Amino acid sequence: MLAKRITEPFKHDRLDLSSIETKSKKRADNWQGTLSRIWSYLMERKGRLSLVILMIVLSSAFALLGPFVVGMSIDTFIVNGDVDMLLVALVGLGIIYVLHSVSVFLQHFWMVSISQKTVYTIRTQLFDHLHKLPIPFFDKRQHGDLMSRLTNDIENISNTLNSSVIQIFQSVLTLVGVIVVMLYLSPLLTLVTLTIIPLMVIGMKWITKRTGKLFKAQQEHLGDVNGYLQETMSGQRIIKAFSQEDRVIRTFEEKNQRLRLTGFWAQTISGFIPKLMNMLNNASFAVIAGVGGVLALNGQVTIGVIVIFAEYARQFTRPLNDLANQFNVLLSAIAGAERVFAIMDEEDEFSDKHGLDRLDHVKGEVAFTNVTFGYEDETTIADVSFRAKPGQTLAFVGPTGAGKTTIISLLSRFYDPTSGVITVDGKDITSVRKEGLRRHMAFVLQDSFLFEGTIRENIRYGKLSATDEEVEEAAKLANAHSFISHFAKGYDTLIDSDGGGISQGQKQLLSIARALLADPDILILDEATSSIDTITEVKIQQALRRLMKDRTSIVIAHRLNTIREADQILVLDKGSIIERGNHDELLEADGFYADLYESQKKKLLAT
Ligand SMILES: Nc1ncnc2c1ncn2[C@@H]1O[C@H](COP(=O)(O)OP(=O)(O)OP(=O)(O)O)[C@@H](O)[C@H]1O
Fold first, then answer.
1. In sequence order, what are the residues at sequence separation of 6 or more whose Cβ sits closer than 8 angstroms to the Cβ of residue 516?
2. Within 6 Å (CB) of ligand 1, which residues are found?
3. Is residue 255 domain-shared with residue 203, that is, in the same domain?
């Protein structure tokens, strides 16, 4: 039973680790590039970095000096019985160790400040860049993964800069220093002491080979657990509505179990390192004492030198140990940094700025000419052409998946057509800056997204410079003022990002107010499908009419009542326009639209 439990995690790890190994091979190709990029961030704080390096050199020198003073004191003052000088040496030793502590404290203090500033810069740059990335980038990625890059991976860089970088520098310096001083004191005893190195390297290699993979697996499983946690938190309503709590808990249990097992083995095996080092340390101490003793009897070394060697041997194994440990940490931080830089290297959607039209003034004419588009290989929009004159309302209807939302995504340049041309006021929109184009548009979308903040801030999102009076004016026009006034804190009522405490209808009214405040030249309206009580529905329809008045409006309609007055209705099916005309013309044509209208009318009468 125990054997099964011990081998199981490895069976499982072997499966998982293959993918991690392939990834790490790819990483190896560009880890130098990643390191030099991290270095360039550090170089922005050259002054502090120089101080840290100075402190590392000083603390390493003090660490070497201590045992040297002890050894020399034994040979000169103790052997000769010079008590006064011995006291002086002891005071000197005290000062050396105090200075050592001060330099260690300062190097840590300055390095923490460098690393915090570095990750602050990286986090800010990453967040800024994420907001400039085009929609297709987000289509391809899990939100949990992006969150993990913004949090875990960056945190990893910070931790590594704090501890590993210093330790690696210090370890190398101490190693070199110890070997130089040992060679100076006794080349023969140095050789004997160094025989311990191959044993150490073999042991370390054996352990780190296993722990390296396990730590990576642990990181991946942690990402998996975090992703699942996030997904289940945001999907709470659906989970409860479909009574999926048990299944969700079981799945989490499996993921959590995998994390526990890899964590357990990673910690257990890496825990062998100090034990192994301790054992080799004791062995080297015995060898130094034995060989040193013989050499001392022959008068080749003094007792003081043996004491220095014994102490150095201890200092010698520690940096080797640290190097091996920190190397793993460093590799995992590099892997994290690569994931962060990979996002920063994604081309943002505003990189096409140069030489493009700013589109300052717009009348609002929108035209599609033979536009074809597909998200992947399949064609989603096929040869679509239409024209909306300034101020006109153009409505799209059609079955789900027909491509209505895709049309507005193309008009907003979230995607560009495969062929054909989209123009605003006769200008091809691919020759216009994206932000210049979107500045003229306002969106009222199905899932009226509200941000965490007050109602006032949420409406003001449409025009950040709006005064409180303008915000209230827009809310009044949107029929939102009366329900807002009923809240105890009115416009200062706090809402969370899920819109908790606010009904669907109220959310729609707030997003209409937001669009009214933006006062766009082109309005894009994706009508909500959710059914709303009749009074709110009347309020929404009235507010929408006000919003659409005198501006070009592209409407995706689900309730045909909304678009009876539209100048043009386009019926879309499988990406193609199959009917077009106004409400009366389409009823007369007695086609798809007429059928849809009749069926909606019957449904309304039945309820
Ligand atoms: N980001 C995307 N990546 C790949 N395919 C997509 C993407 N968005 C939509 N599609 C696909 O494109 C087709 C058209 O989708 P679209 O959302 O435009 O339809 P719609 O008419 O707006 O549907 P609905 O009325 O349900 O909102 C669908 O088959 C859909 O699966």
1. 462, 474, 477, 478, 543, 546, 547
2. 139, 375, 380, 398, 400-406
3. yes
Same-domain check for residues 234 and 85: yes
Residue whose token pair is 């910070």: 158
Alpha-carbon separation of residue 119 from 162, 327, 328, 331, 516 (angstroms)? 11, 20, 20, 17, 40
Considering the domain architecture, whether residues 39 and 63 belong to the same structural domain is answered as yes
Within a domain: 232: yes
339-386 pLDDT, tens per residue? 888 888 888 776 665 557 777 888 989 999 999 999 888 899 999 999
Determine the residue of 406, 556, 596 to mutate for testing ligand 1's pocket, defined as the one with the most ligand atoms within 8 A of the Cβ atom: 406
Mutate-to-test residue for ligand 1 from 379, 405, 410, 570, highest number of ligand atoms within 8 A of CB: 405
Query: What predicted TM-score, i.e. pTM, was given to this entire model?
Result: 0.66
Pick the last residue of a domain from 344, 378, 412: 344
Closest-lying ligand 1 atom to the alpha carbon of residue 407: 18
Phi-psi region of 47 (alpha: psi -120 to 50; beta: other; left: phi over 0): alpha
Does one domain contain both 476 and 432?
Answer: no
* pLDDT single digits (tens) 513-538: 999 998 899 999 887 666 667 777 78
* CATH of residue 589: 3.40.50.300
- How much is the pLDDT for 138? 82
Closest residue CA from atom 31 of ligand 1: 401
Supply the pLDDT for residue 380.
92
| Number of structural domains found in the chain | 3
Domain of 164? 33-344
How far does residue 443's CA lie from ligand 1's centre (Å)? Answer: 18
